[in-house]
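Subject: for your reference before the review

Hello V.,

The reviewers asked for a structural picture of the protein, and I figured it would be easier to keep everything in one thread rather than splitting it across files. Below is the amino acid sequence we used in the manuscript, unchanged from the supplementary table.
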Amino acid sequence: MKQQVLAFQSELMKVKYANTLWWTFIAFALAPIMGGAFIMIIQDPDAVTQGGGLAAKAKAMNMEANWKSYLDLLKQTVGVGGVLAFGFVASWLFGREYSDGTVKDLLSLPTSRTRILNAKFIIYIIWCLALVVSNLIIGLLIGTILQLPSTKINVLYPLLTDYFITTILTILIGVPIPFFALLGKGYLAPLGFVALTLVLAQVIAAIGYGSYFPWSIPGLYSGAGGAFKNLLDKYSYLILILTCIAGYIATVIYWKNADQTK
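And here is what came back from the structure prediction:
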């Protein structure tokens, strides 16, 4: 346990002083900011009537100037955009050792390879949770500034529950990405894998089979796929969980047995 704590502290120190950490928060914060812009347009009937670019987008999304529409937008951002954002986080955490040329130093430490990976996975989870909590706080502040009508707790509670369930699903489906970072020895392979799964998630969901494609499930659960959310069942979540477990096991096995030539 002591070695695991030390490994975690070491990984935490790397992230703490990395500019990448703050750039992910800035990039992910665009969602609540854009959502606030949509709300402002909806609150101005003239802007909607004039039909500018953002106004047309807001109308297409059937947004209303209330907390439900705003939180639904944030939830869908996590379910769809989170696959990309969390995938980038995982790619950086597990691929940077190769890109920075520090992997040999890392493997020379008197700490087991599995504990090093576990420390990175813990950081991955904390980082992703921090991103979604940050967005929620920004969204609540913007919504308050825009004076969105107050809503009852029995309406707000399920919205927040769905927001965090979507977060958990998106985090889980990002677990296989480190395998490609280790296999490709850097950022390029995992980011390519993320891009591929994003495209496939949209296509497969559009033809009605997204409930059985793990990378489509967070987006469908968030409501981004509309009525396709109703297709999700217990097998959908089982497939996602099994994909997560398989990704973790494959990552650990590869890291423990592969020859590290860089």
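For the response letter, the relevant points are probably these. The radius of gyration is 20 Å. The chain has a mean pLDDT of 85.

Happy to draft the paragraph if you're swamped.

O.
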